[in-house]
Amino acid sequence: MPLTAAEAKQLRYLLKKAGLEVPLDLSPRKRGRHERADDPMLAGLELFLRIAKRDCDGMSRKAALHRFFDGIYKRGKFGSSANAVVARFDRKLRERGFNKRDIKTLVPPGIDSSMIRIGFETTEFLDDKTDD
User: Which residues contact 68 (CB under 8 A, 6 or more apart)?
Assistant: First the structure.
């Protein structure tokens, strides 16, 4: 018969008090919300911001974030305001260093570079664009 949470807690306490090692199966469970792996989503958002900056005559990061989130925010709230959502994602991108990463590291794994040549800053694309 498995131990209840209270019994496991009491047993951990008594083992610690006696100076014995607590087995892993008695260790407390992690509490709180699970951490999300949102790095792929943030990498895609950073790609969008860089492409918007290039394709829209130097649009600022904040303006591109507003363009991305204003429509989503109107359909269903996930923040106190669109400005708050933009500020939160801008802060996340900067804190995790996505704004300074090389663009090649932002492309998802398994994507062939020939499929995404249009719309990404590769040296060949920039050379082709300047020849026009």
Answer: 45, 48
Comparing CA positions, the residue from 54, 49, 53 lying closest to residue 65 is 49
pLDDT tens figures, 49-96: 888 888 887 788 888 888 888 777 666 666 677 888 889 899 999 999
Q: What is the CA radius of gyration of the chain?
A: 24
User: What's the burial of 114, exposed, middle or buried (CB within 10 Å: 0-12/13-18/19+)?
Assistant: exposed
Domain chopping of the chain, boundaries:
39-105+116-130
Question: Taking the model in full, what pTM does it have?
Answer: 0.57
